[in-house]
């Protein structure tokens, strides 16, 4: 019996190690040529060393329950990607691959946040419009430091995603830091998240307003429909709003850029692997927007990846004026590969704008810098009280459709409680809360959106 058990363990061990070595070979297959000579010998030596250490640990570590071969190999694979020191490359467990498949399909149970891991916690790149996190008031640039009371500072990005996602209907509490002094908890109920793509409308004066929320498989068709709507309304200028757009499909942003450009490069990708190095050109056959129609593109620190490709292409070619804040700065392209039920994502190339700029960790600088005035420390403290005590929600509970007189009375209530915040900011908080609870909020807010106001004035002048 003992011999059979030992044989079974040995057989299982060899299967697992073989699977690991196959995974390594899959990774190595992406190099531009087969390793040869001394390099190949060195690789074989390193793999032999790994197996020797793996087997010794598996047979001798004091806590036998911790030496499951699957766990050891998964840990080794995670360590391999961590050694790359690239936040966008990682090993993906079967559960993480399922989560990724949900995202690719456009539906998953969660709170609706696009996030990025930094040293101090998890930075919100963008909330997905209409989702629980968006309705709860989570903003791009917010820092999540804890989930359900447990710190996320030492977790990697996949572990954070795992705790934020869950069954629709279940609740989760996020501890958020905003600005320098603002710290508060936000409780949201998870929902089935459907990633939105485009919103559009025509601003008085013939200005087509196109907001691209994220680049998904449907975005190209939705943008084309919006451009047709603008043409039918006889538009004379256009605003593309890419603020808080976290990016998405490379192919989609190339097609959309081609709607505005008739020739020349849109973007190029450069890689160690010849098949991943490309230059993507515009074609006059695909141009939809007239070349003499004025275009303004709005960006902010939540504009990342594919949205930066579009902004960079239109900026470098002089096709549009870029307005707002410096963008996020993600200039790399990843591929997802499946290995069995698990898989990995690996940075395969970096992209470059038409003028040859890579904006990774740099971002796109606007031609016309415009941003909301920063709050003073006293105003941040006032805002903290408003959020923590849920004063805006309480006010709208009393007045679901507030009049100017109701809002003026509320502003006086805040002043009586020694909460000093600019009236315009208070009114914008009320408007935003109304929009977040609106199943069909307006596509734009020309009354309180200072950056959009600047863009409209720029085009009208």
Radius of gyration, Cα only, in angstroms? 26 Å
CATH architecture title of the largest domain = Alpha-Beta Complex
Number of domains: 4
Seen as an oligomer or otherwise, the chain set is single chain
Task: Please provide a written account of the structure.
This protein has 461 residues and is of the alpha+beta class. The chain folds into four domains: 2-83, no CATH class; 107-194, Pdz3 Domain (Roll), CATH 2.30.42.10; 198-369, 2-enoyl-CoA Hydratase, Chain A, domain 1, CATH 3.90.226; 377-460, no CATH class. It has helices at residues 2-28, 37-60, 69-82, 94-105, 132-135, 157-164, 219-232, 250-258, 306-316, 377-388, 391-398, 404-416, 423-436, 450-460, and strands at residues 90-92, 107-110, 113-118, 121-127, 143-147, 150-151, 171-178, 182-189, 191-194, 198-203, 207-212, 237-241, 265-270, 278-281, 295-299, 321-324, 332-339, 342-352, 368-369. The strands form four sheets. Strands 3, 4, 5, 6, 7 and 8 form a six-stranded antiparallel beta sheet that branches. It has a six-stranded mixed beta sheet with strand order 10-11-12-15-16-19, with helices on both faces. Strands 1, 13, 14, 17 and 18 form a five-stranded antiparallel beta sheet that branches. Strand 10 and strand 11 form a beta hairpin. Helix 8 runs parallel beside helix 9 (306-316). The longest helix is centred in the first third of the chain and has 27 residues, at 2-28. It is globular. 32% of the residues are buried.
């Amino acid at each position: 019996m003992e011999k059979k058990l030992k044989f079974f363990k040995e057989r299982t061990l060899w299967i697992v190690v073989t699977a690991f070595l196959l995974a390594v070979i899959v990774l190595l297959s992406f190099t531009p040529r087969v390793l040869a000579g001394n390099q190949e010998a060195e690789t074989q030596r390193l793999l032999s060393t790994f197996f020797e250490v793996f087997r010794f640990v598996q047979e001798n570590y004091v806590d036998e329950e911790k030496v499951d071969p699957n766990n050891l190999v998964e840990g080794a694979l995670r360590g391999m990607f961590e050694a790359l020191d690239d936040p966008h490359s990682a090993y993906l467990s079967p559960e993480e691959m399922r989560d990724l498949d949900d995202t690719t399909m456009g539906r998953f149970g969660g709170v609706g946040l696009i996030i990025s891991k930094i040293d101090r916690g998890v930075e919100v790149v963008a909330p997905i419009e209409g989702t629980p996190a968006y309705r709860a008031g989570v903003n791009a640039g917010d820092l999540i430091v804890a989930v359900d009371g447990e710190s996320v500072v030492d977790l990697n990005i996949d572990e954070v995603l795992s705790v934020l996602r869950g069954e629709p209907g279940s609740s989760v509490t996020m501890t958020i830091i905003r600005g320098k002094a603002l710290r508060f908890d936000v409780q949201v109920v998870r929902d089935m998240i459907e990633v939105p793509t485009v919103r559009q409308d025509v601003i008085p004066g013939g200005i087509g307003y196109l907001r691209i929320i994220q680049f998904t498989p449907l975005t190209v068709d939705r943008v084309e429909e919006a451009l047709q709507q603008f043409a039918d309304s006889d538009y004379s200028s256009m605003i593309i709003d890419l603020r808080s757009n976290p990016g998405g499909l490379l192919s989609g942003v190339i097609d959309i850029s081609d709607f505005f450009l008739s020739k020349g490069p849109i973007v190029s990708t450069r890689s160690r692997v010849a098949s991943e190095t490309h230059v993507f050109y515009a074609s006059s056959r695909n141009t939809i927007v007239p070349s003499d129609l004025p275009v303004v593109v709005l960006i902010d620190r939540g504009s990342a990846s594919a949205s930066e490709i579009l902004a960079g292409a239109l900026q470098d070619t002089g096709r549009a004026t870029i307005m707002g804040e410096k963008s996020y700065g993600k200039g790399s392209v990843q591929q997802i590969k499946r290995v069995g039920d698990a898989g990995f994502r690996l940075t395969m190339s970096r992209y470059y704008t038409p003028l040859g700029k890579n904006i990774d960790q740099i971002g796109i600088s606007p031609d016309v810098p415009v941003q909301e005035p920063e709050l003073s420390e006293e105003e941040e403290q006032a805002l903290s009280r408003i959020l923590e005590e849920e004063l805006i929600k309480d006010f709208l509970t009393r007045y679901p459709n507030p009049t100017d007189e109701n809002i003026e009375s509320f502003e006086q209530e805040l002043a009586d409680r020694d909460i000093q915040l600019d009236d315009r900011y208070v009114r914008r908080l009320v408007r935003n809360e109304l929009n977040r609870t609106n199943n069909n909020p307006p596509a734009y807010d020309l009354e309180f959106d200072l950056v959009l106001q600047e863009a409209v004035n720029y085009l009208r002048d």
